[in-house]
Specification:
By secondary structure, the protein is α/β, with parallel strands linked by helices. It contains 7 helices and 12 strands. The protein has a single domain, classed as 3-Layer(aba) Sandwich (Rossmann fold), CATH 3.40.50.880. The strands form 3 sheets. It has an 8-stranded mixed β-sheet with strand order 5-2-1-6-7-11-10-12, sandwiched between helices. The chain has a two-stranded antiparallel ribbon with strand order 3-4. It has a two-stranded parallel sheet with strand order 8-9. Strand 8, helix 5 and strand 9 form a beta-alpha-beta unit. Helix 6 runs antiparallel to helix 7. The longest helix is centred in the first third of the chain and has 26 residues.
Length: 284
């Protein structure tokens, strides 16, 4: 009898341990994907952006792709990587864009670009060897700028990096930033007058540093046409799935979501903005 009870308890141990991990994951505070700012920041004022102007997404019709996609080559998605790049903001869109090749042809070809082509180390310690440097990277269709440790300070002072982002982003079909990558786009002048978002703790900092950005808050991402910005972290998947949907249609996005266990179409609670930049005023 004792042996039977002991055997039953042993069989239940994995289930008990699994449930304990689930409970812990629900109650533990999630770490921020970006380090805290050097100084405390006030909450953003009520008139800095809003989530009340949510619009219906301009998704492609079912089973249809954007009409002007190249048919003889994949779209080229270049990911900017520097020392201190955050794993989540880099790999979430990288995975989504890469998986297009399994569900549509020719899909998206993904690669990484660093300033000098030398290996970089992510904030979490993964060592990466970039595919290209600024000098030999091909023309990019989709420029992706993930958040990095220096996105709000040191990287903004790297003139070679900012100049490259300005050139590559200016010639790209789409530019995507994740989390504080929005600061890099803003420094490069790619967010002037453009509806955009960033990591929630950094709304105020972005608004003060770059008042020409049309900041939107409390949304997963903002689709401003050419430029798409995301609040980052786990929400980095949302903007990538949305762009795939725009480019290749909802069926392709749905199949990618099935493979990555991401619900698509997006759940009803997901808030995002599709907004057109305001037209530029007359030259002074």
């Amino acid at each position: 009898m004792h042996r039977l009870v002991a055997a039953a308890l042993i069989a239940l141990l994995p289930l008990i341990a699994c449930r304990a991990r689930e409970t812990g994951s629900q109650t533990a505070a999630a770490p921020s994907p970006v380090p805290p700012a050097a100084a405390p920041q006030a909450a953003p004022p009520a008139d800095v952006g809003a989530s009340s102007d949510l619009a219906t997404s301009d998704l492609a019709p079912p089973g249809e792709a954007a009409p002007d996609l190249p048919q003889d080559r994949p779209l080229l998605a270049g990911f900017l990587v520097v020392d201190g790049v955050y794993n989540s903001e880099l790999m979430a869109p990288y995975d989504v864009f890469h998986h297009t090749v399994f569900h549509t042809k020719p899909g998206i070809e993904v690669f990484t670009v660093s300033p000098d082509g030398n290996p970089v180390t992510t904030f979490e310690g993964i060592r990466l060897t970039p595919t290209y440097s600024f000098q030999n990277a091909p023309a990019i269709d989709i420029l992706v700028v993930p958040s990095a440790r220096g996105s709000m300070d040191a990287d903004l002072r790297n003139q070679a990096l900012i100049d490259w982002v300005r050139r590559a982003g200016g010639g790209a079909r789409h530019v995507v930033s994740l989390c504080d990558g929005a600061f890099v786009l803003a420094q490069a002048g790619l967010l002037d007058g453009v509806p955009a978002t960033t990591f929630p703790d950094d709304y105020e900092r972005l608004s003060k540093a770059f008042p020409n950005v049309d900041l939107r808050i409390n949304v997963s991402f903002v689709d401003a046409g050419k430029v798409l910005t995301s609040e980052g972290g786990a929400r980095s998947y949302d903007v990538a799935m949305h762009l795939v949907d725009r480019l290749y249609g909802p069926q392709v996005a749905k199949e990618i979501g099935k493979g990555l266990l991401l619900p698509w179409p997006p759940p009803g609670w997901l808030k995002y903005v599709t907004a057109t930049p305001a037209p530029a005023g007359p030259a002074p």
